[in-house]
Known about the structure:
Blueprint: H1 3-9, H2 33-61, H3 64-77, H4 79-88, H5 92-107, H6 116-119, H7 129-135, E1 144-146, E2 150-152, H8 154-167, H9 176-193, H10 195-202, H11 207-224
Amino acid sequence: MLALPAGCAKNYAPSACEALDPEYFVETEDPFESYNRAMFNFNIEFDAAITEPTARFWREKTNKHVQHGVSNFFDNLKEPRNFFAATLMGNVEGMTSTSSRFVMNSTFGLAGFIDVGQAVGLQYTDYDFGQAFGYWGIGRGPYIVLPIVGPSTPRSMTGSLIHNRHTYLISRIDDSEGQLFVQYMNWLDFRARLIPATDLLKEQPDPYIFARESYLQTRLNKVCSP
């Protein structure tokens, strides 16, 4: 079963990666720009008032080794998603790397806090279901800014729903308080990693355009370089 998609995808090139395809020109499609700008501004204000200060406090006051350990832990929890997304794309190297990293880091890496996989030459690579859908030619749909969550597309949202339903290991925690704490730490780690991008965004003459183009180009690059 794993060999079949690998064989089929060996020479497959998504149409979105061709220069004549509309998705290649990421700046041309934003039918909900009026709404998106309003929601973008709301998210910026909400972030500046609540989430960014907390993330900066975590980044500035917490020991760097602790931060790296927490980041490693949550990266490890994403490996099942990475594995299945790589499988959908027939990416044998990605399948092997993600599964090997998950086993090593979950055991020898003390539940993922230590990145043993990287120490032996297996670098972390982020794969997702939205990327896999794009790889197989499913269009991304219109750009949309979600409340709190931020930039997205229907293709990415669908991929996230599948991940949250089937491969999101945090949701498997039975203890509600424990799950809430892990969810919070996951969010805190994610937001702290975005601080350099936040600083860059504040320097732009039109932050909305910069955020939109950066997001869509990043997503396109993931689809075209699986």
